[in-house]
Amino acid sequence: xxxxxxxxxxxxxxNFVGAIEQGDIDWxxxxxxxxxxxxxxxxxxxxxxxxxxxxxxNLTRCLTDVRYVxxxxxxxxxxxxxxxxxxxxxxxxxxLSLPAALVVRLGGGLAVRIDEYLDSARAADFYRAFAxxxx
Length: 135
Description:
By secondary structure, this protein is of the alpha+beta class. The chain is 39% helix and 44% strand. It has 4 helices and 6 strands; from the N terminus they run H-H-E-E-H-E-E-E-E-H. It has a 6-stranded mixed beta sheet with strand order 2-1-6-5-4-3. The longest helix has 17 residues. The termini are far apart.
């Protein structure tokens, strides 16, 4: 298996963000390894592929105008680190903003592990936005 080049990794990172912004969770699923684990600092817990895809589907179902802004991507051998601010609108029009960072490990063109670090206090606004839809 040939290692991904830095340009290929950057393209993967751009496509990943673009897919989430467009609500293309199928793209994300096709680019996750079956054994992927996604860890979040806020819950200090790992999610499997199906669980994380469900979370992303809920994100795009409960929020509009989802954007990753102020992205900074640093490539390393086998993956990348991304800092960004996730912005979106809740169904009631509330503007949301969440600073976060991802450490993404890739293998064979697929994500095999993602570690997500976010401001847990500001994440509460996103959870409230989900409750507006799910009541």
